[in-house]
TrEMBL record:
Protein origin, superkingdom: Bacteria
Gene3D superfamilies in UniProt: P-loop containing nucleotide triphosphate hydrolases
Cell compartment(s), UniProt: Cell membrane
Annotated SUPFAM superfamilies: P-loop containing nucleoside triphosphate hydrolases
GO molecular function: ATP binding; ATP hydrolysis activity
Topology in the lipid bilayer: Peripheral membrane protein
Keyword annotations: Antibiotic resistance, ATP-binding, Nucleotide-binding, Transport
Lineage, top ranks: Bacteria, Bacillati, Actinomycetota, Actinomycetes, Micromonosporales
Main location: membrane
Name assigned to this protein: ABC transporter
Annotated GO biological process: response to antibiotic
GO annotation, cellular component aspect: plasma membrane
Domain (ABC transporter): residue spans on this chain: 19-151
Amino acid sequence: MPVIEVHGLRKRYGDTAALTGVDLSVGAGTLCAVLGPNGAGKTTLVRILTTLLRADAGTARVGGHDVARHPERVRAHIGLAGQHTAVDEVLGGRQNLVLFGRLRRLSPARARLRAEELLHRFGLTAADVALRRPTLDEVFLRLTAGSRQEVHQ
């Protein structure tokens, strides 16, 4: 059973065709790489599959959910680790975690609580209580890209 199904996906930016009838089927447990030169539509495809952009035509389903009709269901089942490890590189760890929570439609209070839970889980809370040690936000900014991605997941 495919976890990603795409049929006839099309997207234009003005006169430029980014996707022209893309068909794709990815089975559960399958590794799939989307390769192509700059401007081939790779990012456009990923943005559509992650509900960040609407296709002009065609259908796309992720985990059995239509990305256009039920984006909230798709978002509840996916994760995305992009080239950049934070939505905002200027924000520290706590602020980024709260931002991610808000993007997932948590209330401000629940997003702050969840951020604290995650910081505790990763052992980053000690930086807050240590005498003139770096804040959690400063610690986050010094984490490796891999560690930042772990925090975001």
